[in-house]
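Handout, page 2. Input:
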Amino acid sequence: MIKLKKSLFRLSVIVNILIIPAFLFLFFHYDIPGKIKKKINRNYQPKSFNKVHSYKENINYNIQRSLYEIYSTKKADVIMLGDSITQLVDWKELLGENSVVNMGIAADTTEGVFNRLAYVYNLKPRLCFIMMGVNDIIFDVPVKNIFENYVKIVLALEDKGIIPVIQSTLYVYNNVYCNYAQANIKIGELNSLLRNFSKERGIYFLDLNLIFSKDNILKNEFTYDGIHLKSAGYAIWRTKILSIIKEYLPKN
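Output:
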């Protein structure tokens, strides 16, 4: 009986010696930790950033549009138009300007923005600051299509007598929302198109990437998740916006 126990013990030791290294090899060879991390990141992404096929599927879009229809403000001098990067800050408080309306919607795309311009027109603004495009890139919309949508938006605003200010699409920092290296290449291509378009039409192009980014990557000091800005970023953005407002809408 004792001999049997000793034999079983030796067998278990041998099995462990063989199995554990094999398990560890497979565990790291197939990058199981990395796959688990990616799975966690996907599970904890805000629902607004889950890939959608159309702006019509974006719950934030539908909620905000319904709110636009009941808000009491009927006139604004300045509209801040964009996605979550725009939506996440109280622009009236940040700028100290009462005649500013925030029309940012989380996860919105250039197509979505174009299809809600009527709400911008309703407020009869004089200036409209635009920042968008990163969600299109996350949703794999070709840069050519993003730019074409952008042009449609700008021309539509100008047709209504609204002065557009194009702001650069911000670079991203990490892989939480997308492959940031590939995304930044596309963001660079989009910004190049927007810069040239702005120059051709005499439109103000505010290149925030000159401040917020280095080597075409969003600086870690300005972001908490690789795409959205910290307060330090908004503080700098504020000075740029106020300078442009002063230039285009001088007070008597």
